[in-house]
């Protein structure tokens, strides 16, 4: 009998092991993962009846990825997950509020905080650029665009008006949407 989920089980185990060892150097991490991968292949080669259950037993005998990572680090206990050790406080709440009201200060506080990932910080900084002050600055240029479109045919004026209305609506909702996104990511931690 063949394990129907063999590749998936092994991949999940190795991915979990890799996540547990993110604080190790890439060379050490790759060396350990390659060693475990070879060991799994050797053990699987010696199985007469490879089923999902026997493969799970094999992975269980290897040990919990957190324990393997802790041993590789030289400590006896697994490290505490970064996501569970981080707490949010006044800095993060101020960053969320000031991202919409006083964007430069909010963006600085966003980057100072260790709670959000770099991707979330980039999104918070760039979408929309400048928070509401930036949105209002962009919208203040719309009168020049509408004035230029009035010189053309009527359909151009209507199209430009509809496009600018859509951009205005999205631009007004975007800061609030970004704050909600960042708050949910903060709450998830």
Question: Could you explain how this protein is built, in words?
Answer:
By secondary structure, this protein is an all-alpha fold. The chain has two domains: 74 residues; 99 residues. Helices cover 75% and strands 0% of the residues. It is built from eleven helices and no strands. Helix 6 packs antiparallel against helix 7, helix 6 runs antiparallel to helix 11 and helix 7 runs antiparallel to helix 8. About 3% of the residues have low confidence.
What keywords describe this structure?
single chain; 189 residues; 75% helix
Question: Helicity, in percent?
Answer: over 70%
What best-fitting shape do the alpha-carbon axes yield? elongated
Count of alpha/pi helices: 11
In round numbers, the mean pLDDT is 83
Radius of gyration: 26 Å
Distance separating the two termini: 42 Å
Which structural class do the helices and strands define?
Answer: mainly alpha
Task: Give the number of DSSP strands.
Answer: 0
Order of helices and strands: HHHHHHHHHHH
Range of strand content: under 5%
Number of domains: 2
**Spans of at least 5 consecutive residues with low confidence:** 81-86
> Tell me about the biggest sheet?
none
């Amino acid at each position: 009998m063949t394990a129907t989920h063999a590749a998936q089980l092994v991949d999940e185990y190795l991915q979990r092991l890799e996540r547990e060892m993110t604080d190790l150097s890439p060379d050490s991490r790759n060396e350990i993962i390659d060693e475990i991968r070879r060991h799994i292949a050797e053990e699987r080669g010696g199985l007469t009846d490879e089923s999902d259950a026997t493969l799970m037993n094999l992975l269980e005998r290897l040990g919990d990825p957190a324990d393997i990572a802790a041993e590789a680090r030289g400590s006896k206990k697994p490290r505490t997950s970064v996501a569970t050790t981080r707490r949010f406080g006044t800095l993060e709440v101020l960053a969320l509020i000031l991202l919409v009201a006083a964007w430069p200060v909010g963006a600085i506080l966003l980057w100072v905080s260790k709670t959000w990932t770099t991707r979330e910080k980039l999104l918070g900084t760039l979408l929309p650029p400048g928070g509401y002050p930036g949105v209002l600055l962009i919208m203040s240029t719309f009168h020049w665009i509408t004035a230029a479109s009035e010189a053309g045919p009527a359909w151009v004026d209507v199209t430009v008006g509809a496009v600018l209305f859509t951009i205005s609506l999205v631009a007004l909702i975007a800061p609030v949407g970004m704050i909600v996104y960042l708050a949910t990511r903060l709450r998830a931690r």
